[in-house]
Amino acid sequence: MTNEEFIAQNKNADVHALALGKVPTGINLHYCLRQIEGWQKAQQKLPSWAKTEGIIYPVRLSIEQCSSEQTALYKQKLVARLLPENRQRMVDLTGGFGIDFSCLAQLFDEADYVEQNKQLCETAHHNFPLLGLSKARVHNKTCEEYIDGMGLFSLIYLDPSRRDAAGRKMVALSDCTPDIEILQDKLLDHATMTIVKLSPMLDIQDTLRRLPNVNEVHVVSVNGECKEMLLVLCREKRNVIFHCTNIAAQTQTFSTEKRETEPLIASRLERYLYEPNASILKAGVQNALCQTYNVGKLHPFSHLFTSPHFIKDFPGRAFVIEDYCGFAKKDIKVMLAGIIQCNLTIRNFPSTVTELRKRLKLREGGDDYLFATTLGDGSHALLRCRFPH
Q1: Widest Cα–Cα separation across the chain
Q2: Considering only CA atoms, which of 68, 96, 92, 61 is closest in space to residue 79?
């Protein structure tokens, strides 16, 4: 039996059980387990790769760190919009497993993949032709080695490593490898546009101060979970536009230049409650929702909004407020009569979800949603809500 036959026969098997079982003679078990585990992870994260016969998967860390196919396709659409023509050459200076590169390279006449890890380069050499990227050129170099001798590009893409030598996650811009702050002048000299993927944990305001040529900031979430931040750098400096996207069954995007705008504080609770998605909260542009959607904010720091009208395209979740009360025991008892479970959210409230759930004696789940928050007058309130029908 060959390695390929063993992999094909055990694609859906438990890799831990396989590792402990009897192995046929001549099988490279370490390699086979890596391929089986990689394919299993790719089914959810990289569906088109999983459907492609012959793809070789790298070590687990490379798959965990790589972009999902959903976010890679988002970048592809972004570049197609920003560079509608003259897409001659692109380079990915931190190639990794090549997910982002494979999507972006499809838009360009020439595409260069740069990666310092020799094994990843060998994997890329094997995989790219299978993905229809026969024009891709693979360079086993560091970003710094390649950049000194490179020419002009339509696009430079980078996804700096956010782990130190011990494998610990790093979030400061200066801790990433390569250091974009040091390289930014070279990047601007060699490309019409540079896109940098960074951790959503990064401080946006500090990052913009260190990288003054950022024209767009994209904060991308998938199904409500914030995944990555993209910076678009250009030689010509413009006002920064923030794009906050949640990729889901119905993808939502909110764009604004107004990050420092003052909120409109609601004088009272209306019929509907609105909770912005994670991308908006991370970008810090929630106050701009007031003007765009004509909603009032419950409190400057509560990040919840209210309106008498249902807003179908609000970038986040919408609820009907069925009842609300303060935190007097009698009022809470009346409002929660008959309710034994709920989905509990804390927004600008002096308690944790665990502490408050224990105090209210409510199990998790069900159709009721409780929001513990602070109102514009400084009082604490408990809001009982449900999704609109």
Answers
A1: 75
A2: 92
The pairing of beta strand 136-139 with beta strand 110-114: parallel
Report pTM: 0.91
Residues 61, 278, 212, 110: is their CA dihedral positive or negative? positive
Which of 3.40.50.720, 3.90.1150.10, 3.40.50.150, 3.40.710.10 would CATH assign to domain 65-256? 3.40.50.150
**What residues contact residue 103 under an 8 Å CB cut-off, 6+ apart?**
69, 72, 73, 75, 76
Distance between CA atoms of 217 and 38, rounded to whole angstroms? Answer: 31
Per-position pLDDT tens, the chain of length 389: 788 888 888 888 888 888 888 888 888 889 999 999 999 999 999 999 999 999 999 988 888 888 999 999 999 999 999 999 889 999 999 999 999 999 999 999 999 999 999 999 999 999 999 999 988 999 999 998 998 888 899 999 999 986 555 555 656 788 888 899 999 999 999 999 999 999 888 899 999 999 999 999 999 999 999 999 999 999 888 899 999 999 999 999 999 998 888 999 999 999 999 999 999 999 999 999 999 999 999 999 999 999 999 999 999 999 999 999 999 999 999 999 999 999 999 999 999 999 999 999 999 999 999 999 999 999 999 999 999 98
| In the chain, where the domains are located | 3-45, 65-256, 272-386
- State CA 117 to chain mean position distance: 25
Taking phi over 0 as left and psi of -120 to 50 as alpha, with beta for the rest, 167 belongs to: left
**DSSP β-bridge partners for residue 73:** none
- What residues have CB less than 8 Å from 85, skipping those under 6 apart? none
Cβ atoms < 10 Å from Cβ of 299 = 20
Burial state string for 205-242 with b = 16 or more CB within 10 A and e = fewer than 16: eebeeebebbbbbbbbbbeeebbbbbbbbbeeeeebbb
Instruction: From 311, 305, 303, 308, select the one nearest 285 (Cα to Cα).
Output: 303
- Tell me how far apart the alpha carbons of residues 322 and 94 are, in angstroms, rounded to a whole number: 51
Taking the C-alpha atoms of residue 16 and residue 1, their distance in angstroms, rounded to an integer, is 21
